[in-house]
Amino acid sequence: MATVVGSVSFIVGQAYAIKADGTQRILMLGDEVYADEVIRTAADSQVEISMTNGESIALEGGQSWLVSAETYTSAEDYPVDEAVLSDDVASVEAIQQAILEGQDPTLIAEEAAAGNTGDAGPGGNEGSTFELIERTAAEGDPEAGYETIGLAQTQPEIIRETGLFNRAAADTVDTAVVSMTGPGSVVEGETTTDYTVSISQAPTEDLLVTFNYTATDADGSDYTAVNSVTILAGETTATFTIDTLDDALAEGDESFTVSIGSVGTGGLEDVRISPAENAVTTTIVDEPTAGPEDTALISITGAQTIIEGETSGNYTVSVDQLAADVTRPITVELIYSGTAEDGTDFTGVAQVIIPAGSNSVDFSIDTLDDVLAEGSEDFTITLGTITDSNFENIAADASANSV
Questions:
Q1: What region holds the LapA adhesin domain (predicted)?
Q2: In this structure, what are the phi and psi dihedrals at residue 106, rounded to the nearest 5 degrees?
Q3: CATH of 293-396, one of 2.40.37.10, 3.30.70.20, 2.60.40.2030, 1.10.3720.10
Q4: How far apart are CA 296 and CA 304, in angstroms?
Q5: Which has more confidence, 1 or 321?
Q6: Is residue 180 scored above 70 in pLDDT?
């Protein structure tokens, strides 16, 4: 099983670990690296390996490094007291003394012990001998003038020049945040003041920002939505306004929310929507005084002649608003005048009601036949008191308030 010698503690760009058989894997933060792998970085990339012995190795773009378990084995892994025999120590001391006396240790040292002669194997080999060498990791300062170095090596200090590589800067480079501000209120029928979309870093290309709308009471008939704006290359803001639509409905204050739906990249590496400033809620305030544009008009039409004793054709009382906007009934009083008398010559209808969900109502008049030679008679129906709670203001249409 491969020996783990460290792990990836930092990486920017791409780096690879290549095994002896040529297979490679892309390294990610936290990945382990193994002995005998080659670590290679792509151009403009950096990787840092934290070794199991506490040291670190940093590679810049285009560099390679062969991982070796031997190089990074600590001396603590080889306890001296278990590996070195007293006879071995004595032999070492004798050789050191001989060197001090000017003798050649290769001539006076005891020959290596020979192993048993092995049987000849296939191909005529006569066997072999070997010596078992214990690795002790011991260190000392012999008088021969050369210092011995144990297996625990201290890696040279890694020098990083200021400005060559900055981890904090690498984490935030080319990241831009898009936010939005705007008015809290607008009077119904007027245009809002500016909504401003801002980006913390100017894009190198035009950047498109789209919007979503939600409403508590307002809907598409209360304002004209703006669906997107473009922040031009080199700029950091874009503005837009929203037109509100005046109507005759007695709605009270209404509100809608415009929020950032999506953003482009504008040539930047990373563009994000601000989590705190990504939407504006605007209240549409009803005008304190209703004007002509806020007034719903009631009118009446109907038959011009009736034969005595018969029932008239339909008379129609209407309001000049959408049926869907009539959410509560409208009551209209009818007033009669003329030579014909209500109750004697005809049976009048005192009032009519325009029902909710409709913008008109029909009614008819029954005339009464008698034996009197009266000649032609006439009567006029005029709109009287109107009772309504749907609209800001309601009145009889001056050009069609009687028939």
A1: 174-286
A2: -75, -20
A3: 2.60.40.2030
A4: 26
A5: 321
A6: yes
